[in-house]
Amino acid sequence: MKGIILAGGTGSRLRPLTTVTNKHLLPIYDKPMIYYPIETLKRAGIRDILVITGTSHAGDVFALLGSGKDFGVNFTFRVQDEAGGLPQAIGLAREFVGSDRFVSINGDNILFDDITPFVKAFEKGKEKSRVLLYETTREEASKAGVAVLEGDRVSKVIEKPKDPPTNWVVVGVYMYTPQVFGVIKNLRPSKRGELEISDLHNYYIKDGSLCASKLTKEWLDAGCFDELLRVNKFVGEKSPR
């Protein structure tokens, strides 16, 4: 299994902080944000990690992470030239992934669950994709990709619905086989001009090859100022003194 950390984007909701540096290098309590997804992948036994970042402040990311020696992993880097959506960024990993299955995690996602059981299940299973779900508030669900459930099966993912049918959201951890790169090539941009990750989820739902696992601990996303403040407070309270 290989790992991908998606650390691109413009970070427009966090300006002017992101005028100075990459969003994923901003501090979450006592560590840069990107350390948390690195630790999540490493805890799951994943050592070969591709970091995909944007053109702005890419040098800061390279300088901080280096080869991966200090983290006990091996880093490879790719630059996403423009903000074309998460699937486009994942598509840049084709050569890195080769014939392996892989886990992609958003660089601003902080999980307190150990994802090892989910990764192992995907590694040994027959599904082509596995997503992780988290039950949040109705307000937060309206800002995310919401999973419509039939029992434990996801029947549809709706992107940022005004009236969420459930409070279960798809968090920024996605598992795929290399077949995903062919699927991404056939996706079409949405009205905002980017490829949408929910379209990728819905492809696998229609294909009957998507599985979902539910998180039991906190999931945090630090994409705007209010979320950044909340995440810092939460992590600070959880950290040993």
Question: How do the SSEs run, as a string of H and E?
Answer: EHEEHEHEHHEEHEHEEEHHEEH
How many β-strand runs?
13
Largest sheet: 7 strands, mixed
Proportion of residues in β-strands: 25-35%
Unreliable segments of 5+ consecutive residues: none
Task: Describe the protein.
By secondary structure, the protein is α/β, with parallel strands linked by helices. The protein has a single domain (2-132, 172-238), classed as Spore Coat Polysaccharide Biosynthesis Protein SpsA, Chain A, CATH 3.90.550.10. The protein contains ten helices and 13 strands. A seven-stranded mixed β-sheet has the order 5-4-1-6-11-8-12. The mean pLDDT is 91.
Give the tags.
Spore Coat Polysaccharide Biosynthesis Protein SpsA, Chain A; about 240 residues; alpha/beta; two-stranded antiparallel ribbon; 7-stranded mixed beta sheet
